[in-house]
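Researcher: Next sequence.
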Amino acid sequence: MTAQQYQEFIARRRGAQAPAAAAAPKRTARKKPAVHPGLPSVPEPPALEPLLAGLSGVGYVKTMLMPYVEEMLTSNQRLHHMAEYKIKKRLRADAAQMIRRERLPRLQRAAIFYVLHPRPINRKRDPGNWAPTAKAYVDGLVTPNLHRPQEHHLLPDDDHEHLLGPNPVMGAPVTTGFARMSLVIVELAGSS
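Model: Next structure:
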């Protein structure tokens, strides 16, 4: 075996191939630019009869369409803890603002339903995945300002004695814009 034959043998063994003719340049996949879904729309209010059918001692009932936000929390997100905190802080502040704007009375016991109004996309939806957003809204309703707890809030606490829920409900989709959420607050006769 000559030296040249030996070098060719070793090159084949290592998997090297003979240089090919001018190879075509590789094409990189282009990412489509994000498309904004448009201006916010107001969805139809949820039907209250099916929600109230299973409750006893129903008193005051209020449906609130929460302010339009482009970012809501879902169970499927993996956010940095500070990014998540900023979204939660804004959602809590929005809920506290709604208490003042709607002049909601202070309740001792309540049931809260959160109604998801999704974007009009053809796929299955699980409203339970939006529980972190609903939890942030409920936290804002219970304690609107952590630094000033004496301020008006809806419920004394969000424990099992004062709050039933928040329970997920699927609502009518929005026509344009990002998903929206409504809260249905139902006063319950206290058993305490």
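Model: The beta strands are 58-65, 110-117, 163-170, 180-188. The helical segments are 3-14, 49-52, 81-102, 131-142.
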